[in-house]
Amino acid sequence: MSAMVEIDNAMKTYEGGFEALKGVTLSIREGEILALLGPNGAGKTTLISCICGISQPSGGAIRVGGHDVVSDYREARSLVGLVPQEVNLEPFEKVWNTVRFSRGLFGKPRDDAHIEALLKRLSLWDKRDNQIKELSGGMKRRVLIAKALAHDPRVLFLDEPTAGVDVELRRDMWRIVEDMRADGVTIILTTHYIEEAEAIADRIGVISKGELLLVEEKSALMARMGRKELRIELQAPLDAIPESLSDYDLALADEGRALVYSYDTAAERTGIARLIAALAEKGIVLRDVSTRQSSLEEIFVGLVHDGEDAA
Ligand SMILES: Nc1ncnc2c1ncn2[C@@H]1O[C@H](COP(=O)(O)OP(=O)(O)O)[C@@H](O)[C@H]1O
Ligand SMILES: [Mg+2]
């Protein structure tokens, strides 16, 4: 598959000198769903704004469908649909017009059947003649989605789409994302709900302090998540891990009173039985054992934290 969005060393320094993007390089394949994870202030919205042409990068280059977002703005922009983080609708405008005008803005011919289908799919059809100000927060979000899809974009950006939305809208949203994926639309979403990224993304990127710390296939990341820890409390503390156990991924904890064994849950053998036998052979007496699973959340927090240490 070819690259739909190419981000080459993108930088953004805001007025006042704050560096929100410090050279992000990323290639997004046509038809994939990429989730960008990162804490508040990481630069997710800034990156999306630069790709969508709302904000100009201070350095580097960004292309959408081969069109440079600065020099070839119109072409690049017409390929992109954006569901923004903040609701930015005209309060006195009617739902129908809001969505229809948005299509017109991109120079696409009027297509009332398409707008009707969109509004029906988003459960907005009954509200088509209502003014935006008469809608609930969840419905305004639905209008934002309809608006983003009105001109048949090839790339859809969803910036924190589910922050504070109800279960029903969340479910509708994922149904729409699935439909769009089936149509071959490339989807980039930002979130700080990790389970959400886990559920729908093909690839996961982690961004922190304006830098992309990692981009990885979800399946590879899940395999990494499959690590578990076996904690073995010892009767008598150890000074060091015995030489004969150097094959195992072991660490001493709690001033030698515990051994922590990390193993891969996806592996054919965990090695636990062999390790316990080896400990018994060394005359090491166990007091208690427990296991715990490392989560994507921990991997994520660890990464972001390491990023802070380096800064
Ligand atoms: N217009 C702006 N002027 C100055 N600083 C900004 C502006 N917009 C965002 N920032 C700063 O840039 C950083 C990244 O913001 P943003 O891209 O919104 O992060 P995220 O979407 O990951 O929460 C933040 O520290 C934010 O305060
Ligand atoms: Mg944001």
Automatic annotation (TrEMBL):
Keyword terms, alphabetized: ATP-binding, Nucleotide-binding, Transport
Q: Which chain regions cross the lipid bilayer? A: none
- The reply to whether Transport figures as a keyword in the UniProt entry is yes
**Which InterPro entries has this protein been placed in?**
AAA+_ATPase (IPR003593), ABC_transporter-like_ATP-bd (IPR003439), ABC_transporter-like_CS (IPR017871), ABC_transporter_ATP-binding (IPR050763), P-loop_NTPase (IPR027417)
Q: What molecular function does GO assign, one term?
A: ATP binding
> What is the superkingdom listed in this entry's lineage?
Bacteria
The record places domain ABC transporter at: 5-234
Record's keyword annotation contains Endoplasmic reticulum: no
Matching entries from Pfam families are given as: ABC_tran (PF00005)
Q: Which Gene3D superfamilies match?
A: P-loop containing nucleotide triphosphate hydrolases
Q: What is this protein called?
A: ABC transporter ATP-binding protein
- Organism in which the protein naturally occurs: Litorisediminicola beolgyonensis
